[in-house]
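Pilot study result, target chain (242 residues):
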Amino acid sequence: MIMRPHPKEGTQVQQTPHALWPPRFKAAIFDFDGTISDTATIWHEVDRAFLSSRGLPYTDEYPRMLSSLGFDAGARYTIETFGLRESVAEVCEEWKRMGRALFESHATLRPGVQLYVHALTERGVRVALATVNDRDVLKSLRHVDVEALFEVCVYGGEVARPKDHPDIYLETARRLGVEPTDCIVFEDIATGLHSASSVGMLTCGVRSFDPVQRVDEVRSAADLWLDDWRDIGPGAAPGPRA
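Predicted structure:
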């Protein structure tokens, strides 16, 4: 079982890289959008285009709500909120089509992510992806093979409930063959952090640099906090980053 740090102490942010390297956990579970990638802004573009084409208003609260729901639950929320006549399948297909096109041309992993994942693997730590994104959307990435980077990938459509429940984290731990209490979860949303914590997982909030991220909320929900992936692992460099 992972020994948790004292929560939310004033020096926690500076101590976090030391808690993450060398690793003191058996498995690391990573979210995708916003956490290890800069793709949150891509989904904002999709959201704006989707709503604009129907003459509907866009607010920051809309992507915040969708970030933990995934495609099916997000489509149901959208249909109910705006009174759309389209089906869940039709809304999801439109989102995925736009997402695939933008991911192919714009999506990248954040600097330092691949180095850290590879370093964990070399230390014998199991690594997995747990995302409400879609397998076909992530396969459209041009410069990285996500499924080759991680031992296990679990997508939102493979579990019963979105990230306001711990289903996806528990299923990921099950596929890795580890106990939930031996896992750390990296997330950029408070909803996911609360769910992972509720089943005994260590949590690390990650700054996404997404303007709609509620940083204080995410930090308060997490055991640890990370500003930049390049601050941890064998490639870490001292000093502030631009």
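One observation from the pilot: The mean pLDDT is 89. A full batch analysis is planned for the follow-on phase.
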